[in-house]
Amino acid sequence: MSTARYLEDSRQKVDRALTDLLPRETVHPARLLSAMRYSLFAGGKRIRPILVLAAAEASGGKVEEALSPACAVELVHTYSLIHDDLPAMDDDDFRRGRATCHKSFDEGTAILAGDALLTLAFEVLAAGGEGIGDNIRLQMVRELALAAGWRGMVGGQQVDMDSEGSKPELPVLEYIHTHKTGALIRCSVLLGGLCANADEATLKALGNYGEKVGLAFQVIDDILDVTATTEEMGKDQGSDAEKGKVTYPGLFGLEGARERAIKLVEDAKSVISGMDSTGRLAQIADFVLLRRL
Amino acid sequence: MSTARYLEDSRQKVDRALTDLLPRETVHPARLLSAMRYSLFAGGKRIRPILVLAAAEASGGKVEEALSPACAVELVHTYSLIHDDLPAMDDDDFRRGRATCHKSFDEGTAILAGDALLTLAFEVLAAGGEGIGDNIRLQMVRELALAAGWRGMVGGQQVDMDSEGSKPELPVLEYIHTHKTGALIRCSVLLGGLCANADEATLKALGNYGEKVGLAFQVIDDILDVTATTEEMGKDQGSDAEKGKVTYPGLFGLEGARERAIKLVEDAKSVISGMDSTGRLAQIADFVLLRRL
């Protein structure tokens, strides 16, 4: 199966599982559920949940048993986008070419929709699929909470806000990227391994791969923010630079940032070369890189 | 031990456990942790966590083993206050006589502090104390997610927002109160029973008690909003009415609302009369009522 076909098939599996999580018809709170659905089905590429599925398969697990953690990470990712887009944070009106949640609904509803998606992630993880042991499910709850909370993604977003307009420094930039984007991507790969009962050595390799892919992802995002057109990105071009944000191209130039992204993906592939039986993890790393360099 | 002494001792136990959850000195994300601490230690009465401890003791469990779920519900409660106070929601500048989180810090930080507290609640619950089985801990994660998410508290807050300025109707009011306030209070009592390995009948009685106390709590809050001075409440008096919110006194008058609160507390005490060996659950129900009627 080609990489493109694999990604598309996996995306559809994830979309079906996500669709089952939210009821279609509810009297209360109908507006909240509409807002949750609006953002959850906004055309995301589902890279994080696909990483969960791929890591589970690479570790000898079944895709079906990895669907709950896959949904959980996508719910957390979607909540983070909704809150990041708010006027009090990045103040973005468009995301993936559509009005952001608070523009399409209202700010209060967007805040609550994010809150509800985050909470649902833990519900889904704790409910889990059949075949996953209670101790593994608890470990997944802990890993997701660590990756999403103040030690992870939310911490990264805070420091990103705090550093706006200040002189860019590499340690701050690396803190932001490993936390804001990297932590959840690393967690996705780990959850895949965990739900497949991977051993310590495999989990360590997966975590290592996830860190590198996560960082590459963010470097490429920074590059795209400079080079891509508004139409391609679905949001205003160069908006990071306008906001005085610390970025990789800002620190190393476009060439330097590209070199770094290529190196990170090569390293990520090398880390899992011995265990990536399906070859999918390497393909996803390449896909991240080739989104547009 | 008198009720007052019991409540104060329990509050101190909860405060010590909460203090241990957040590090004092951290470089990143220092501002986020400050905001989390600011709201977490804003002088709350800790009713919800004390309900966890009391329900655990009433079910034959140990207070020490109930501290993790007690902290988890207080973290969720604090996050909900921060987000509810935001300009896009209730737009309150003061809470318990102090500037609200977004006033003392900024809106972006307040949103993230709420997000981080919610996430930390699940981390704490999944990490759990010693002596609680994995299946019980998972059940607690699920109960908290259900009570806090779109089926519970967040759903209630959404419908509360949606109904502002519209003609008050009893079914809507009851939906709002059982979800916005009631769900987390009921969950607190349930988590106490769960971590003490309470049997089905006990859990059912606890859930029933929690529902009634939760509803009484909200009816009294509505009454206080009309009758208490700004100084006593620490926020603007009559602010619910000004916002055109549906309230119990608005629907039934002050007398009718008082009658309802008294009846709910009597019913709550009667439901647990057979199992409340320490008598603390009945005392807490009375305390809720006597806050000021």
Write the layout of secondary structure elements.
Two copies of one chain form a homodimer.
Chain A: H1 3-19, H2 30-40, H3 47-58, H4 67-85, E1 94-95, E2 98-99, H5 101-104, H6 107-127, H7 134-148, H8 153-162, H9 170-195, H10 200-227, H11 230-233, H12 239-242, H13 248-271, H14 280-290
Antiparallel strand pairs in A: 1-2
Q: Could you explain how this protein is built, in words?
A:
- Chain A is mostly helical and 293 residues long.
- Chain A has a single domain (3-290), classed as Farnesyl Diphosphate Synthase (Orthogonal Bundle).
- Helix content of chain A is 70%, strand content 1%.
- Chain A has 14 helices and 2 strands; from the N terminus they run ααααββαααααααααα.
- Chain A has helices at residues 3-19, 30-40, 47-58, 67-85, 101-104, 107-127, 134-148, 153-162, 170-195, 200-227, 230-233, 239-242, 248-271, 280-290, and strands spanning 94-95, 98-99.
- A two-stranded antiparallel ribbon of chain A has the order 1-2.
- In chain A, a hairpin with a 2-residue loop joins strand 1 and strand 2 (98-99).
- In chain A, helix 1 (3-19) crosses helix 3, helix 2 crosses helix 6 and helix 10 (200-227) packs antiparallel against helix 13.
- The longest helix of chain A has 28 residues, at 200-227.
- The mean pLDDT of chain A is 91.
- Chains A and B meet through helix 2, helix 6, helix 7 and helix 8 of A and helix 2, helix 6, helix 7 and helix 8 of B.
CATH homolog superfamily of chain A: Farnesyl Diphosphate Synthase
Helix share of residues of chain A?
Answer: over 70%
Tally the beta strands of chain A.
2
Strand residues, percent of chain A: under 5%
Order of strands, widest sheet of chain A: 1-2
Q: Give, in order, the helices and strands of chain A.
A: HHHHEEHHHHHHHHHH
Characterize the biggest β-sheet of chain A. 2 strands, antiparallel
Mean pLDDT of chain A: 91
What's the end-to-end separation of chain A, in Å? 25 Å
Largest interface (C-beta under 8 Å) = A-B, 54 and 54 residues
Level-1 CATH class name of chain A: Mainly Alpha
> What fold name stands as the CATH topology of chain A?
Farnesyl Diphosphate Synthase
Radius of gyration of chain A: 18 Å
Structural class of chain A: mainly alpha
Oligomer: homodimer
Shape of chain A: globular
